[in-house]
């Protein structure tokens, strides 16, 4: 009898030890989130004096700021058709949303860590405070202005009816860089390559002009009707100006200055027609294009005869080229540095008398046609805008 008890106890003991060894071996390690874009801005309560965190509600008083922000791509950072298409892919990790809907209040799940440090295995729980309407607003007023449950301002001298804290350092270009400068190899085929901040720091504007002075132009106006004029900043966040949807409101900034050469009106047979277009990154505080590695400028020069048939064509591209498979790798990059210039030359020797038209176009492109088709983006999603468009009539006598 006693022997039996010993045996049973021994079996139980061995069982427990084996089970614990098994547990130890299969134990998952939870890694904390470290990078700013791996995590959301912690949950925010509605600041005292307000009824909601929504941009629409800020806009009830800050009418102009709201109207301007609606033009910006910040207000489309969630609804953007390409973003939504990308997000549906299995290869897109949870962290994609942190720069596009940065507040935890805008996110369906609360992510607290990564199992074994794997970005495809976030530890998540349902967010009881998830606000779907707030999510649609993308990078809204509160994304930049609400922290620790109060509205952050840069003066602290206003008569705001809401809880406000003065923090001009928080509301500086540092805020912009938290999303506009991310360089990380997330996985072998997923690389974050937004270097607008580094490009600016390396260029001639550093210490002279920053993200805010160029993208949020200062102006004098009432920030709420009836409260008197003060220093204010336009909230269009104008950039490339490529609209998010056909016909959408947008504000364009142009980085390039164009210096086309003269074209003679008449040439003789066998005389070379030479045309030069000099482009200079005159106005951007960073390289152009910048940010999204899919952006590029297209330069097209076409010589057509009287019937519209192209007799000679030259195309060029300013931008980066990447290979994504089997591993993400930048293949080439001829983006223009601030103040850098580049000349594109077209030449043609006509062999007969004829009337010709030289059509020159420069387009600013969001992404190429192939990528757009791959992501099934239809014609609602504009791929480019034209920033230089000239036609020269030439007669070969
Ligand atoms: C009920 C009207 C009202 C609403 C709603 C409102 N504000 Fe204000 N806000 C004001 C007034 C009034 C001022 C002060 C104007 C003045 O003195 O010139 C102000 C001031 C500010 C300032 C400047 C603070 C400083 O220190 O310089 C910021 C920034 C601001 N509001 C952001 C917001 C944001 C973001 C929201 C939405 C989350 C919001 N406001 C909602 C009325 C409102
Ligand atoms: C000296 C003025 C200036 C400064 C400083 C500046 N920008 Fe720009 N930025 C421009 C201009 C002009 C364009 C438009 C370029 C174009 O598309 O032709 C632009 C374009 C952009 C774009 C769109 C890029 C693209 O290729 O489509 C982003 C994003 C951007 N800026 C962010 C920033 C951030 C972030 C900072 C601060 C680190 C900054 N900018 C500093 C002038 C400036
Ligand atoms: C991408 C970040 C960002 C977003 C989004 C944003 N702001 Fe601002 N806002 C700023 C910064 C930065 C300043 C301060 C500029 C300075 O003082 O140098 C500012 C300043 C202000 C001010 C003070 C007055 C002024 O014009 O300088 C008000 C009021 C304000 N914002 C309201 C709003 C409202 C309302 C929205 C949404 C409709 C909004 N902001 C969206 C970054 C943002
Ligand atoms: C929370 C992250 C975040 C912050 C903070 C932020 N941005 Fe952005 N910004 C974005 C994203 C994401 C987009 C692209 C949205 C889209 O196209 O769907 C964008 C777009 C832009 C564009 C337009 C680029 C284009 O395609 O033309 C400009 C300009 C810009 N931001 C400037 C700024 C400036 C200036 C600041 C600081 C005051 C700032 N941003 C702060 C995330 C951010
Ligand atoms: C570090 C912040 C950050 C993270 C993380 C991030 N984005 Fe963005 N995203 C941006 C900024 C900034 C822009 C605007 C860049 C520009 O115009 O130069 C942008 C723009 C975009 C655009 C619009 C491009 C266009 O041409 O208008 C898409 C689509 C997009 N991101 C998809 C994603 C996907 C998918 C992920 C996850 C794999 C992701 N983003 C993660 C910051 C971020």
UniProtKB/TrEMBL annotation:
It comes from the Bacteria. Gene3D superfamilies: Flavocytochrome C3, Chain A. InterPro entries: Cyt_c-552/4, Multihaem_cyt_sf, Multiheme_Cytochr_ET. Pfam families: Cytochrome_C554. Residues 57-110 form the Cytochrome c-552/4 domain. The chain crosses the membrane at residues 5-23. The keyword Transmembrane helix applies. Keywords: Membrane, Signal, Transmembrane, Transmembrane helix. This is Cytochrome c-552/4 domain-containing protein. It comes from Runella slithyformis (strain ATCC 29530 / DSM 19594 / LMG 11500 / NCIMB 11436 / LSU 4).
């Amino acid at each position: 009898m006693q022997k039996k008890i010993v045996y049973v106890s021994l079996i139980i003991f061995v069982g427990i030890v084996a089970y614990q060894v098994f547990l130890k071996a299969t134990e998952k390690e939870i890694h904390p989130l470290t990078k700013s874009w791996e995590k959301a801005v912690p949950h925010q309560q509605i600041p005292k004096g307000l009824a909601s965190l929504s941009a629409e509600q800020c806009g009830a008083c800050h009418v102009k700021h709201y109207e301007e922000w609606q033009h910006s791509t910040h207000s489309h950072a969630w609804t953007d058709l390409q973003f939504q298409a990308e997000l549906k892919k299995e290869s897109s990790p949870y962290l994609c949303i942190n720069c596009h809907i940065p507040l935890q209040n805008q996110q369906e799940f609360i992510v607290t860590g990564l199992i074994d440090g794997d970005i495809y295995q976030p530890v998540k729980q349902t967010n009881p405070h998830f606000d779907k309407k707030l999510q649609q607003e993308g990078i809204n007023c509160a994304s930049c202005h609400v922290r620790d449950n109060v509205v952050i301002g840069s003066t602290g001298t206003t008569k705001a009816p809401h809880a406000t804290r003065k923090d001009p350092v928080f509301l500086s270009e540092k805020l912009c860089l938290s999303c506009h400068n991310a360089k990380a190899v997330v996985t072998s085929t997923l690389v974050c390559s937004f270097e607008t901040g580094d490009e600016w720091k390396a260029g001639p504007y550093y210490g002279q002009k920053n993200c805010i002075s160029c993208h949020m132009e200062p102006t004098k106006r009432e920030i709420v009707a009836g409260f008197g004029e003060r220093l204010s900043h336009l909230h269009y966040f104008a950039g490339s100006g490529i609209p998010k949807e056909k016909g959408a409101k947008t504000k364009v900034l142009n980085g390039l200055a164009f210096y086309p050469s003269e074209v003679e009106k008449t040439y003789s047979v066998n005389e070379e027609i030479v045309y030069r277009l000099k482009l200079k990154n005159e106005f951007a505080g960073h390289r152009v294009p910048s940010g999204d590695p899919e952006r590029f400028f297209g330069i097209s020069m076409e010589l057509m005869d009287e019937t519209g048939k192209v007799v000679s064509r030259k195309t060029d591209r300013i931008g980066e080229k990447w290979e994504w498979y089997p591993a993400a790798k930048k293949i080439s990059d001829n983006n223009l540095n601030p103040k850098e210039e580049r000349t594109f030359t077209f030449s043609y020797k006509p062999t007969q008398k004829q009337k010709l038209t030289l059509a020159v176009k420069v387009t600013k492109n969001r992404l190429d046609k192939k990528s757009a088709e791959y992501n099934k983006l239809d014609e609602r999603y504009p791929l480019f805008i034209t920033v230089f468009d000239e036609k020269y009539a030439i007669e070969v006598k």
